[in-house]
From TrEMBL:
The keyword Methyltransferase does not apply. Keywords: Hydrogen ion transport, Ion transport, Transport. It comes from the Eukaryota. Subunit of the V1 complex of vacuolar(H+)-ATPase (V-ATPase), a multisubunit enzyme composed of a peripheral complex (V1) that hydrolyzes ATP and a membrane integral complex (V0) that translocates protons. V-ATPase is responsible for acidifying and maintaining the pH of intracellular compartments and in some cell types, is targeted to the plasma membrane, where it is responsible for acidifying the extracellular environment. Subunit C is necessary for the assembly of the catalytic sector of the enzyme and is likely to have a specific function in its catalytic activity. SUPFAM superfamilies: Vacuolar ATP synthase subunit C. One of its GO terms (cellular component) is vacuolar proton-transporting V-type ATPase, V1 domain. V-ATPase is a heteromultimeric enzyme composed of a peripheral catalytic V1 complex (components A to H) attached to an integral membrane V0 proton pore complex. Belongs to the V-ATPase C subunit family. This is V-type proton ATPase subunit C. It comes from Pichia kluyveri. Pfam families: V-ATPase_C. GO terms for molecular function: proton-transporting ATPase activity, rotational mechanism.
Length: 381
């Protein structure tokens, strides 16, 4: 859903006449048109207004991206973008209602402050919240990836699978100064070859020590007892024979820790997911509030630059039900309000719009695409 925010100088436009024009010429009904009342902000010098215009333009784009990011995070967590966006609210209101009934939140963004102070207040608030959300989501992704790796180890074959649920204490030589138990994942296709050769691939392998611990469709897990002094030689020979050594040392505390690790990660992942869901909804709402305040503040600043003083303007929020109507509305508004630009825009005898290349001085300090009025497209994210 999209809107057009249009600002017109109060002295040059009659509100009733404008509303009649919108309804009769733009294929709109009264429900699609909302008049927004904005306060008059503290105005500084012309130079400061130009700098504020540039800063507001940058912040407008930045907050737009922050809102999109919060939606992307919500969609990634919930998996249904349409349902997610439909259920989101801004300041406990439906998104469309908040924008169409917009009121400047003076309790937070006090109009006694200068425009520079308001820009900094809104910017710092949103940027900090955006950073918090991104950092929290990054932490969540790390935990989720760790959990995926653990699940892979739990559900994979015996060459990669975590062994703490498979092996037992009795499978290992305990507290020996000379002997050590080695675990090997043997491809089933060469299991007989392994049994016939493991005793002779290196020195001092304990004869008949191979013990089958577990078996799956791809591998068989065997333990073999060797002398510690020849461990490296045995492991090297095992790899050359395509036997996969499994690095595992039995320890009761380690076993218990591994058993708890997965459950703890599940709990951490679930808790953090709930936290990020809450934070992303909060970020969406707060940054959207900031975004629309920036949008309207930008409209005020541009109006002062475009129309001059006194800063008395009419603001109209026009709902676009069909995006095809956008060009129609734009062109009709230019025809209707081209007089605001002096000689920059005019209409020929056939009713065609003429655009004078010699725009007035204000064209150099306001928007790149010059229009005879202040107009912004707002997408309801």
């Amino acid at each position: 859903m999209s809107y057009i925010l249009l600002s017109l100088p109060e002295s040059n436009s009659d509100n009733e006449s404008n509303l009649n024009f919108f309804e009769n010429n733009l294929n709109l009904n009264s429900k699609n048109i909302n008049k927004i009342n904005l306060p008059v902000f503290k105005i500084g010098t012309l130079d400061s207004l130009i700098l504020q215009s540039e800063e507001l333009s940058k912040l407008d784009n930045q907050l737009n991206l922050s809102i999109i990011k919060s939606l992307e995070i919500l969609n990634s967590l919930l998996g249904d973008s349409t349902s997610t966006q439909l259920n989101l609210k801004i300041d406990n209101q439906l998104k469309s209602s908040y924008l169409e009934k917009f009121q400047w939140k003076n309790s937070i963004y006090r109009i006694e402050k200068s425009i520079d102070e308001l820009i900094n207040l809104i910017s710092n608030n949103s940027i900090q919240l955006d950073n918090d959300l991104r950092n929290s989501y990054s932490n969540y992704i790390n935990i989720k990836n760790n959990l995926i790796n653990l699940k892979r180890k739990q559900n994979g074959d015996l060459s990669i699978k975590s062994l703490h649920e498979i092996v037992k204490k009795d499978d290992f030589i305990q507290n020996s100064d000379y002997l050590k138990t080695i675990l090997l994942a043997i491809p089933n296709s060469i299991e007989n070859e392994f049994l016939n050769t493991y005793e002779t691939i290196s020195k001092f392998v304990v004869p008949r020590s191979a013990n089958l611990i577990s078996k799956d469709n791809e591998f068989s897990l065997y333990s073999v007892i060797i002398f510690k002094k020849f461990e490296n030689e045995f492991l090297h020979a095992s790899r050359e024979n395509k036997w996969i050594p499994r690095d595992f040392t039995y320890n009761d505390s380690t076993i218990n820790k591994l058993k708890d690790e997965f459950n703890n990660l599940l709990i951490d992942e679930n808790n953090l997911k709930n936290d990020i869901l809450r934070l992303s909804r909060e970020a969406y709402s707060i940054i959207s509030i900031d975004y629309y305040h920036i949008k309207f503040l930008r409209s005020f600043v541009e109006s002062v630059l475009r129309y001059g003083l006194p800063p008395n303007f009419n603001y109209y929020l026009i709902k676009i039900d069909n995006i095809k109507n956008l060009d129609l509305i734009y062109n009709q508004c230019i025809k209707k309000f081209s007089y605001l630009a002096g000689n920059a825009f005019s209409i020929d005898n056939n009713g065609n719009l003429l655009n004078d290349s010699k725009l007035n001085d204000y064209s150099n300090i306001v928007d790149t695409n010059y229009e005879p009025f202040v107009i912004y497209k707002i997408d309801l994210l």
